[in-house]
């Protein structure tokens, strides 16, 4: 069978600067990166996995040991085509997806191992997103996969495979990117995106210092045997090309399509709580002696809600997100030395998946969201602090919305306690009266809160870009106006639904009036102060 070299064959889906979409080879993705806008794939898992592979290739083709090396690359504005070509010379077999003994990112056919339908390769098939995964059909009905798409899903599976289930040499463990979301800095083109995420060795040494000879997986002549206790990460190249599974693609030689796959456990990370990924946001839990834990996406929360946490991680808080520490250092260097010129703003792409709490191997959803960020915020702790204040204001309003829906349900169920319900709405206190147990307030509150947060995304993005330019008091005053408007609209929708269901207007009117009076007084605390949500009239 003729091979399929990922180095030379077009398979990486990209968007050009003029908006057209096409496919390029790995070599082309690097040499043309300054002419390409971005990797363009409907799956965020594939996008992240492709970025990881390309980052490993940047490290392998360019000398980036210190800040001066990186600055020279940034000023060039493009990757060195000669260096890329030199690296690829004689390596066709290392990147061959169909190599008979060392297929790229795979193992040879495993005797005795079950051959799964090709859909098993696509993690999205197990999620509620249910995308159109294949060019010619949905995953439920697809029985084959073109080689270029198989390569994309192969990369994503190695990076995001979910643990759980019997396997050899030991039961399946989570891949490196499965738990916790991944943050990537997105520039104005693919070159900038890759360059802004390529940290120098000084920053990698903080999380994944080089042990022995660090090399990408395709250069490993004698890869180690997997061990259940975990395989020690040798360095950034080893980590970026991590092989979490033994995978073999079953190919129809005549039609050159993938018809099935074998999947078994391979390497897992040590369970020592080390923050080995520069793109993950880690935190420490004083109640658990588990080292650093990755923050996870929540299916009912957009990623922008965590903006203040991400920014604080770059200023030395209890959270750690190394790629933002690196970006903050670049921004400081730009301001102090004026040796480079960075874009005034970038996007932070937050990607990841969530699994069912009851069925860990079942993917609930995956997503990729971009948060626009003016770089001036990163090197100014006061601005980072102000982002946190804006989010604290928004959470105070969320708390009021939840409390108001609880008061509403209480008043509708027990009209004799209408006065107590109003007091609870204002103060969070029920006095000597106990609220009746009911699931209705929770369901009603979730719907109200979701409408509120969805309406606040655009105002938050606007406020974020105003912070470096305007007086904070003015920005915060406008922010409070948007909070009131959108919270009131969300709560009125809830009240209207109750009115349509026959709820007594006199109860609804009293609760609506109480909410209106309370939302009018969002606490305007001084910077850094906390406010007690239980204040009374």
Number of domains: 2
Radius of gyration: 26 Å
Give a quick account of the main beta sheet: strands, pairing sense, barrel closure.
Answer: 4 strands, antiparallel
Class of secondary structure makeup? alpha+beta
Give the topology string: H per helix, E per strand: EEHEHHHEEHEHHHEEEEHHEEHHHHH
List the topology elements.
Blueprint: E1 12-16, E2 21-24, H1 26-31, E3 36-39, H2 44-61, H3 67-76, H4 81-88, E4 116-117, E5 145-146, H5 147-160, E6 182-186, H6 190-197, H7 201-204, H8 236-240, E7 245-252, E8 257-265, E9 282-284, E10 292-294, H9 307-313, H10 322-337, E11 345-355, E12 363-374, H11 381-413, H12 418-427, H13 440-466, H14 472-500, H15 505-519
Antiparallel strand pairs: 1-2, 1-3, 4-8, 5-8, 6-11, 7-8, 9-10, 11-12
Written account of the structure:
- The protein has helices at residues 26-31, 44-61, 67-76, 81-88, 147-160, 190-197, 201-204, 236-240, 307-313, 322-337, 381-413, 418-427, 440-466, 472-500, 505-519; strands at residues 12-16, 21-24, 36-39, 116-117, 145-146, 182-186, 245-252, 257-265, 282-284, 292-294, 345-355, 363-374.
- The protein is α+β, with helices and mostly antiparallel strands.
- It folds into two domains: 105-377, no CATH class; 381-519, Orthogonal Bundle (Topoisomerase I, Chain A, domain 4).
- Strands 4, 5, 7 and 8 form a four-stranded antiparallel sheet that branches.
- Helix 9 (307-313) packs antiparallel against helix 11 (381-413), helix 11 (381-413) runs antiparallel to helix 15 and helix 13 (440-466) packs antiparallel against helix 14 (472-500).
- The longest helix has 33 residues, at 381-413.
